[in-house]
Design a protein that fits this description.
mainly beta, 4-stranded antiparallel beta sheet, elongated, 296 residues
C-alpha cells in the first residue's frame, strides 16, 4: 500500500503493544525505520494487538483507517483529514453496525467488497474463530453497516478456524473475480486456512459460497493410543485413511461413512508400535497428508 502517495509500496502493521507502525519504502526498494502513527499529535495506542486496515472511507481521495484490538473495546475508525500524501488524524469514532457497536475480542477487520455492489464491506476475525461479516448498506462516501452476519460454508454452518483468533485477509486468490479468504489463527496448529468462494450459491446477484479449507489435524502428536483426527470438509463425503511406515509399507487401513460438512472428528483404533508414520486421507477429489509419531 502506498501510504504517502509517492509511487512506492509501504508497510503499515499493528503490534502487540497497540501501536500502528509505518515503514516507508525508499526508491531503491529498501525500507526506512518504522515510525508510529499519531492522532492529534499523540501516538495511537488501541491497547494491545492492534490490527489496522485502510480504505478511502469517505471517498475524498485519501486513505482512512479502521483498527481492531485485543480487548473488547470498540473497533476504531480514524478519518484522514489531511491529504493522500500527508495524513492527519484528529481522533476517532467507534465502528457501528446494525445501530450498535460490536463488542469483539481480538478483533481484526479487513476491508473488501464482498457482494460486488461497489461498496466496501467489513469482514472481522475474532477470538471466537468466526468471520464476522458486516455488509455496507450505505452509499459511496457515506458507509453504513448491517448487523453482524457471520460467514457460512456453502453447505451450511458458520465458518471458523481450528484454533482461536481468526485472522482473515480477503482477495481474489484464484483470479476468478470472487472473494476468497486466507486466514491465520493465534493457536498452536501452525496452519494457514484457505476458503475458496464458489459462484451461484445464493439467490443474490454476484453472490458466493465458501467451502471449508482442505485441512487435517491430529489431536495428539506424538500419538500414545488411538488416533484422533479432526478434518474439515466443504461438503458431505466419505473418507478413507491409509497409514504408511516411512519405508512405504501399509501399516493400517480405515474407512468412514459419510462425514458432515465443516469439522469432523474421526477416531482410528490403533496398536501401532513406536515409530514415525505418514497418514494419508482421500476424501472426495482431495488428498490430505500428515506425518505423526507413535510413542507408547
Amino acid at each position: 500500500m502506498d501510504w504517502n502517495n509517492d509511487g512506492y509500496d509501504d508497510i503499515l502493521v499493528g503490534d502487540r503493544n497497540g501501536y500502528i507502525n509505518f515503514f516507508e519504502r525508499n526508491s531503491n526498494g529498501t525500507l526506512q525505520s518504522g515510525v508510529k502513527l499519531v492522532s492529534n499529535g499523540t501516538v495511537i495506542d488501541v491497547g494491545t494487538s492492534s490490527a489496522p486496515d485502510f480504505v478511502d472511507w469517505d471517498n475524498d481521495g485519501d486513505l482512512d483507517m479502521i483498527v481492531g484490538n485485543d480487548p473488547t473495546a470498540p473497533v476504531r475508525v480514524y478519518m484522514n483529514t489531511g491529504t493522500a500524501s500527508a495524513y492527519q488524524f484528529s481522533g476517532y469514532t467507534s465502528f457501528v453496525a446494525g445501530g450498535s457497536t460490536p463488542s469483539i475480542r481480538y478483533s481484526m477487520p479487513t476491508i473488501f467488497d464482498m457482494n460486488g455492489d461497489g461498496l466496501f464491506d467489513v469482514v472481522m476475525g475474532a477470538s471466537d474463530k468466526k468471520f464476522h461479516y458486516y455488509e455496507n448498506t450505505g452509499t459511496l462516501g457515506n458507509p453504513s453497516f448491517a448487523a453482524d452476519s457471520p460467514l457460512e460454508y456453502q453447505s451450511g454452518g458458520q465458518m471458523y478456524t481450528e484454533s482461536y483468533c481468526s485472522r482473515p485477509e480477503v482477495a481474489h486468490w484464484d483470479e476468478d473475480g470472487l472473494p476468497d479468504i486466507i486466514s491465520g489463527a493465534a493457536g498452536s496448529d501452525d496452519y494457514v486456512y484457505y476458503y475458496m468462494a464458489l459462484p451461484g450459491v445464493s439467490t443474490e446477484e454476484s453472490s458466493y459460497g465458501i467451502i471449508a479449507p482442505s485441512a487435517l489435524f491430529l489431536s495428539e502428536n506424538p500419538v500414545s493410543s488411538n488416533l484422533s483426527i479432526s478434518i474439515n470438509l466443504g461438503e458431505a463425503s466419505a473418507a478413507s485413511f491409509t497409514i504408511y511406515t516411512m519405508d512405504g509399507r501399509v501399516a493400517l487401513l480405515h474407512t468412514t461413512g459419510e462425514l458432515n460438512p465443516g469439522h469432523n472428528t474421526v477416531t482410528i483404533p490403533s496398536n501401532l508400535p513406536n515409530g514415525t508414520y505418514m497418514l494419508y486421507c482421500a476424501v472426495g477429489n482431495r488428498e490430505l497428508t500428515e506425518r505423526f509419531v507413535v510413542v507408547r
